[in-house]
Amino acid sequence: MSLFAWLRPAAPPLDDALRQRLAGLPKAKPPGVCSLREQRWVVLDLETSGLNPNRDQVLSIGAVAIEDGAIDFAQQFERTLHRPEQKTNASVLIHGLGPSALAAGCDPAEALLELLEFIGDSPVLAFHAPFDQRMLARALKESLGHRLQLPFLDVAELAPMLNPDTVLREAGLDDWVTHFGLQVDERHHASADAQVTAELALILFSQARRQQLDSPLQLEQRLGGWRRRKAHHHGF
């Protein structure tokens, strides 16, 4: 056995039904040229045991679909994962996930596969998307032996790009929610955070259209230029 094979984590054992469902997932698509309204989006929020993507775990998942230019409340996804070994800490408690909730959670492999089926081939929106993307990628690899290939778009980047005159240093989700006057009944809960992120995304899509950005591809291209200018400004 080679050293690299020894270092590579073994693929988790999956039954035939799970393997067939994984094989039946649609292929991820690059950002398209359809209008923002025509595109189905999935807004994702993960609650985790901490902020270290190499060590911490996904504890709960919330997601909602945006379709036909509006939040579709008939398309919502929420799961708490079975994590009985997870120790209670401040990060866990802030999400309201006590030991009993984690012990009664869903099988991680089943929950994650159901999430992939819910997402389909839609692009994913998240606030601070790189973190959610890395956490989800690792969870999928460990529980399903599956490589995440879905395109992610970061709402935390879209907001300042589309609002260059708004000065909110290191702005978090709460800052943008307050800026746009959105009503939030609950925070630090996966499904609630996904919903408010979806509401924010719809405001940003409306702004994007007014700036002649009306497709996922145009948004992605503008973001690329915005990132390059930002890096140049900071001397990277």
Automatic annotation (TrEMBL):
<feature type="domain" description="Exonuclease">
    <location>
        <begin position="40"/>
        <end position="210"/>
    </location>
</feature>
<dbReference type="GO" id="GO:0008408">
    <property type="term" value="F:3'-5' exonuclease activity"/>
</dbReference>
<dbReference type="GO" id="GO:0003676">
    <property type="term" value="F:nucleic acid binding"/>
</dbReference>
<dbReference type="InterPro" id="IPR036397">
    <property type="entry name" value="RNaseH_sf"/>
</dbReference>
<dbReference type="InterPro" id="IPR013520">
    <property type="entry name" value="Ribonucl_H"/>
</dbReference>
<dbReference type="Pfam" id="PF00929">
    <property type="entry name" value="RNase_T"/>
</dbReference>
<protein>
    <submittedName>
        <fullName>DNA polymerase III subunit epsilon</fullName>
    </submittedName>
</protein>
<dbReference type="GO" id="GO:0006259">
    <property type="term" value="P:DNA metabolic process"/>
</dbReference>
<dbReference type="GO" id="GO:0005829">
    <property type="term" value="C:cytosol"/>
</dbReference>
<keyword id="KW-0378">Hydrolase</keyword>
<keyword id="KW-0540">Nuclease</keyword>
<dbReference type="InterPro" id="IPR012337">
    <property type="entry name" value="RNaseH-like_sf"/>
</dbReference>
<keyword id="KW-0269">Exonuclease</keyword>
